[in-house]
Amino acid sequence: MYLNMEALRERLIFLQGTAMRTYQDIKVEFQGTDMIFNNQRLTIGMRCDGFVVFHKNGNVDRAKTLRCHAHNQIGEIVIQLGSGRMYVKK
């Protein structure tokens, strides 16, 4: 589960960078086992709760903890307010 959470964190960092490069807000939503952003759907193989919006300067407007479930395990990604820095909570 930890490796899946690290892969998800890397995808989110890529989308955060994309928001900064394109100077556009990007909303990332989770539905079932899919991650939805910019009219694209990506299967991530686990269920996550919530959404996050990366603003054009890379920050987020509220701190979040994304909880993901797979195979009776729970993982969390913590997104810090302001900077938008992320880490996987062990």
Concise structural overview:
The chain has 90 residues and is α+β, with helices and mostly antiparallel strands. It contains one helix and eight strands. The protein has a single domain, classed as minor pseudopilin epsh fold (3-Layer(bab) Sandwich), CATH 3.55.40.10.
Backbone structural class:
alpha+beta
Shape: globular
The spatial strand order of the largest sheet comes to 3-2-1-5
Using the 3D structure, state the CATH architecture: 3-Layer(bab) Sandwich
- Using the coordinates shown, work out and report the CATH topology: minor pseudopilin epsh fold
The total count of strands amounts to 8
Share of β-strand residues = 35-45%
Domain count: the total is 1
Give the proportion of residues in helices.
10-25%
Query: What is the number of helices?
Result: 1
List SSEs in N-to-C order: HEEEEEEEE
Instruction: State mean pLDDT (0 to 100 scale).
Output: 92
As a whole number of angstroms, the C-alpha radius of gyration is 12 Å
